[in-house]
Write a structure and sequence with these properties.
The protein has 72 residues and is mainly alpha-helical. The chain has helices at 2-13, 21-59. The longest helix has 39 residues, at 21-59.
């Protein structure tokens, strides 16, 4: 599948980019992989934040009311 992607984009880029279209196709694949990795990282971070929020909500009943300094 990756080889098909590289071949298809190298053929498409052959008339657009002077030099090595295979190298340009690899750079394109690299930028796509980096973008997808960034999206997955943000997804993991948001899942972690959501889990921490839910965990905090579960611990909320354990918190007592603060005492007033003026009340005796």
């Amino acid at each position: 599948m990756v080889q098909h992607f590289l071949d298809a984009h190298a053929n498409r880029l052959e008339s657009l980019i002077p030099g090595d279209p295979g190298h340009a196709a690899v750079k394109l694949l690299s930028s796509i992989a980096q973008r997808e990795a960034l999206v997955l990282s943000y997804n993991d971070l948001l899942l972690l934040l959501g889990a921490l929020f839910v965990g905090g909500l579960m611990l909320l009943p354990l918190v007592g009311r603060p005492r007033s300094l003026l009340a005796h």
